[in-house]
Amino acid sequence: MSVVRLDWIASPGTPLHGDVTVTGDKSISHRALLLAAIADGTTCVTGFLEGEDTRATAAILRQLGVRIDAPAEGERVIHGVGLHGLRASATPLDCGNAGTGMRLLAGLLAGQGFDSTLIGDASLSRRPMRRVIDPLTAMGASIHAQPGALPPLSIRACDGLHGIDYELPVASAQVKSAVLLAGLYAQGTTRVREAQPTRDYTESMLAAFGWPIHCRAGVAEIEGGHRLRATDIAVPGDFSSAAFLLVAASIVSGSDLLIHDVGVNPRRTGLLAALRAMGADIVEENPRRCGGEAVADLRVRAARLHGVEVPVEIVADMIDEFPALFVAAALAEGPTTVRGAAELRVKESDRIASMAQALRALGVRVDETPDGAVIHGLGGAGCLRGGTMDSCGDHRVAMALAVAAQRADAPVRIADCANVATSFPGFVVLANTLGIGLSAGE
Q: How far apart (Å, rounded) are the C-alpha atoms in residues 213 and 215?
């Protein structure tokens, strides 16, 4: 995986105009690979995210004996080996920076009859894994981690898993998905309960691959003993990638932008509700369903934003979009309050601390709390300062700061941006096309 250090220079550009598409949804791309690999038959995935995270998952599956072809950009053909067809790898399985990949693979590998070791880069090696280790161990898996339940994860061969009735202690689609994937190999019923609904991509995709799954409010339930059948998957545009463009067009006067084919699953689009509450002008056009997922074109025009108290009930539906929201809040009129978002502290960086530090350097008052922050916006006529900021190696922080620089009075140097390739490899080129001032630093 990439370890090259890359800095950006971001400076005010022009109003954002045009019709664009964003990269394929990362969460769906990961899940499509994993389920197709253990299905019977051949699956074609279109709209696949060509990012380092998803490529890492594909490389791991190849190590495990799955043939995966890439006939064109954004396309993968996966020749499934069936539920019990994976083979042991002689070398560790490198997830790179992909927390989703590691947690979902832990669930998939927990029920295999061979040993595996999951490793990651320096950032991933600092991310907590106890949240998946605990339920998987309760199902009968044998997983050894480093002190603090950190990667690498050593997963021992399993004689058999059993279903459990598990209530998520924190809202996490990754943990829910890991348990459900392990449940494919378990005897009996595996039931996951969640007090706060999270993304349901795994549930929808299991159904698409033909595995019986029963879902009701706050509960997903499967039984072992079935098979997955190959099915073609069309991956919609990643809402998390579109989020940066939505905020950029909202805060740069004169912008009018149309983003095509964006996935608008309700469990993913809390940012839309938050931005609209702040006064953003965002309209969903041409709503439709594609591959079982809700998709729409998003038209966004510049608007004068005002601060809000973000409802706690939508926090889980926008957990990856908070860096972008922090930028919108910094340029809104009055304070914006975020609560119930402690999960942000264990992402690729501590995103509350990372964004607070950067926004303060840009001239914004930010009061941190254990589970959120209060951002005191500068208002519609406000202007951020230039300077040097550190993305802390976090792809979403880097892109958020590039957007913030569009309202700065001087260039902003953003350090350590190489990891943007994990989720949005074409961001710089697309940003320049739209009028965002962004280039590699010297």
A: 6
